[in-house]
Amino acid sequence: MEGDTPFADLFKESMIFANREVLSPHYIPQHLLFRDRQIAEIEKALTPSLRGERGRNLFVYGKTGTGKTSCMKTVIERIKALPVIRAKISYVNCRIYNSRYRALSKIASDHMPIYAKRGYGIVDIYEKMISWIEEDGKVLIVVLDEIDIVRDLDDLIYTLTRANSDIKSGGITLVGISNKVSFKEDLDPRSLSTLYENELVFPPYNSSELASIVKERALKGFREGVVDQAAVNLSAAIAAKESGDARLALKIISKAGELAEAKNMNVVTIGDVEAASKFAEEEIAYEMIGTLPEHQKLVVYAIALMSINGSRYKKLNEGNESFILSGEIYSRYSSIAESLQKDVKGARLYRKYIADLEMQGIIVSYESGKGIRGHTRLIKLSYHPEKIKALIERSLFREEGEQQNNVAGTAAPN
Prior knowledge:
- The chain is of the alpha/beta class.
- It has three domains: about 35-200, 3-Layer(aba) Sandwich (Rossmann fold); about 205-285, Helicase, Ruva Protein, domain 3 (Orthogonal Bundle), CATH 1.10.8.60; about 295-400, Arc Repressor Mutant, subunit A.
- It is about 50% helix and about 10% strand.
- The chain has 15 helices and nine strands.
- The chain has a five-stranded parallel sheet, with helices on both faces.
- Strand 6 (about 315-320) and strand 7 (about 320-325) form a beta hairpin.
- Helix 7 crosses helix 9.
- The longest helix is centred in the C-terminal third of the chain and has 21 residues, at about 270-290.
- The protein is globular.
C-alpha cells in the first residue's frame, strides 16, 4: 500500500506504553519512595565537606536495586543547587572507569579538562589535582559507584586518601558505593589504614514497598487502565522473593508490557508478568556477571568451562542436575588466573567469592554428603554456561587489551 515503509510499525503509537523511560531502572523520580532516611544520612555525612572541612569518608552498601545510586545522585543534584559551598563533586561510574588511571582521569576531566587528555600519567594528574584543591582550599568529594569493580582498588584508595597528607589547604572526601558489605576484606592493610569512614547500609525493599514503587512508575509509564493492581503486586512479590530488588520489579513489569504489546493486546495480565519474570531475572543476572570483580569473574568462568567440558573427574549428578567439586573449580580458576598473569587468590578469598556468588544467585551449592571423600561443596551455575562463557570472554579480552593499551598512559613522564 502507498505510504507503507519497512519501518512503519516502529512509528505506531503504543497502546500499552505512555512513557517507557519512567519504567527504566535508570530513571530517577523527583521523590524516592522509602529512602528519606538514607538520603538524610548521606547529606549529614557530607555536610562537613560542603563547609570546606575534611569530613570522614562514607561507604554505602546494599544489594543491587536498593536505591543506593539513585539516592546518591539525588543528593548530588541537591548539592549542585546550593548557592554557596566549598566543595566540588566528581561522580565516577566504576563499571566504566575501572582502574586508578581511569578514575583519576575522570576526575581531571570533570574539573581540569586539559589534564584529562592521553599522555599525562598518574603522577602528573595527581600533582595537578593537589594544586587545584589547594588554590582556594576546596574539598573534592569523589563518589566511586560500584567501587569494588576497580581492578587496582588498593592503589586508587591509597592515592585518594593519602592525598590529604599532601594537601596543605582543603582535602578529599571519598564516597564508596558497593553491593558487597565485605568488599573491604580484600583490601591491603595499608589501604585500610588510610580509611576513616562512616558506613550506611541500604536494606532491601519488602513486597509492599516494591508494589508502591512499581505502581507509582506504572501510572506514568503505562496508558490508563493497562495494568491492574494484581499484575503490579505479582511483579513486586517476585522481586521481593528474589532479593528485594526494585530494578528487577521494574524490569518485570516493563517486559510484561512488551509481551502484551507483541500480542497486540491492550492490557497486561498476570500471565504476562509470570512470563516476563523469567526474561528479567536472566537479563539482570547476565548484567551482574559482566560487572563482577575480576577474580570473581574468573571463578565463574572456570565453573562455566567445567560445566560445558566436564572436569577431570566425573561430575556428580543430583537428579537431573550436575554439580562440580569446589576444589576442582579452585584448581581450574588458579590455572586460568596464572595463564592471564594474575595473582592467584588464596583459598580463604576463594571461599568468600563462592559465598558472594551464591548470595547473588549466580551459583547454587550444597555440602557434600556420604559417598564423597572429605568435606567439600558441590557447585553448579544457575544460568546457561555457554552464554556466561561468551559474556566473560568478551569482557576479559576487552579489559586485557585496554590494560595493555593504557600502560604507556599510566607511566609518569620523565
